[in-house]
Specification:
The chain is mainly α. The chain contains 16 helices and four strands.
Length: 274
C-alpha cells in the first residue's frame, strides 16, 4: 500500500484455498475442510488460480492488497441469516435486519435450564456443548464426543476453539472467552462453568485447584467401586455431621445410591447435607 501511494508497483495477494494439495495444505483433515466450507470458502483450481494471478498483476489501480479466493454465496447467506457473517463480506449477500442480540438469542435456553435442578441443567448444557463440539470437529453425532475427554485430545486448535466459542455464545447469549477450551478443558467442566454464569445464585461454587484436581481424578470412578473397595462407609462418615449416632446410616446408604459422583464429591469435601 505504501508503494502504491508513491506511484510504484506493488501487490500483495492473500490467497484462498487451492484445490491441489501443497506443503501448506497437506495436513488439512476433513474437519478442517468442513469448517472452511461453513465459513464460505471454496477451493481454486490451478487454472483459476493462475488466471487470478494474471488479473492481479494487471491491475494498475486500486488496492495493493487483493484476496484471490473463491467464495460460496449460499454458505455466506447461511452465515448472514444466522448473524455470523464477517462485516467485510456484508456487501456480497443480502442481510436481513436483525433485532435480536446474541444475549437475547440465548434467553430461551437460559430460561429453560434455570427451571431445572442443577444436575439436570448441567447434563443439558453438556449435551449442548457436545453437539457444538461435534459440529465444529466434523463429527456426525455428539456420541463421538466424550464429556470427560480433553478438548486438546479431541483435536482442537486456536481456530476451532474460536468457532466453538462463537457457536456457544450464540446459543447461550453468554460472554465467553476465546480461550474457553483451555480454561475449561472438557465438555463437562465447560458446561459447569456455563451453569455458574447462567445461575450464579444457584450453582455450586467453583472448586479451588486442589479440590478440582481431586474431583477430576475420581470423577470417572463408577459408584459401585466405592462400595466394592469398602470406601462407602468412610465417605458416609465424612458426610455425617459430628455427633451423629449412626441411626440414619441405612437411610444415608439408600440415598447415596441415587447421587451422582459430582454430588458425592461435593458432600465429602464440604460436609453439607444432601
Amino acid at each position: 500500500q505504501f508503494r502504491r501511494s508513491q506511484g510504484l508497483v506493488g501487490v500483495s495477494l492473500a490467497w484462498g484455498l487451492w484445490a491441489d494439495t501443497s506443503a501448506m495444505t497437506e495436513s488439512l483433515g476433513e474437519a478442517d475442510m468442513q469448517r472452511m466450507t461453513r465459513q464460505g470458502a471454496e477451493s481454486l483450481s490451478q487454472a483459476e488460480g493462475l488466471a487470478l494471478l494474471d488479473l492481479a498483476l494487471a491491475a494498475h489501480e486500486g488496492d495493493g492488497l487483493l484476496v484471490p479466493t473463491r467464495l460460496s454465496i449460499p454458505s455466506l447467506q447461511v452465515l448472514a441469516d444466522s448473524g455470523n457473517l464477517p462485516a467485510m463480506l456484508n456487501g456480497l449477500v443480502r442481510t436481513r435486519v436483525r433485532h435480536a442480540t446474541s444475549e437475547s438469542a440465548g434467553t430461551g435456553l437460559r430460561e429453560q435450564v434455570v427451571g431445572m435442578g442443577e444436575g439436570e441443567a448441567v447434563r443439558h448444557l453438556i449435551q449442548l456443548v457436545r453437539g457444538e463440539v461435534a459440529t465444529v470437529l466434523g463429527h456426525s453425532t455428539p456420541d463421538a464426543v466424550s464429556a470427560e475427554r480433553a478438548f486438546s485430545d479431541l483435536g482442537f486448535d486456536s481456530l476451532t476453539a474460536v468457532e466453538l466459542r462463537n457457536r456457544l455464545t450464540k446459543a447461550t447469549g453468554l460472554r465467553l472467552p476465546a480461550t474457553l477450551v483451555f480454561d475449561y478443558p472438557n465438555s463437562h467442566l465447560l458446561a459447569e462453568q456455563m451453569w455458574r454464569e447462567i445461575a450464579p445464585e444457584r450453582a455450586a461454587p467453583e472448586l479451588d485447584p486442589e479440590e478440582k484436581a481431586f474431583q477430576e481424578a475420581i470423577s470417572a470412578i463408577p459408584m459401585s467401586r466405592f462400595r466394592e473397595v469398602g470406601l462407602l462407609d468412610l465417605v458416609l462418615k465424612l458426610i455425617d455431621p459430628p455427633g451423629n449416632d449412626g441411626t440414619d446410616d441405612e437411610t444415608n446408604a439408600e440415598s447415596i445410591d441415587d447421587m451422582d459422583v459430582d454430588h458425592l464429591i461435593r458432600m465429602a469435601l464440604d460436609g453439607k447435607d444432601a
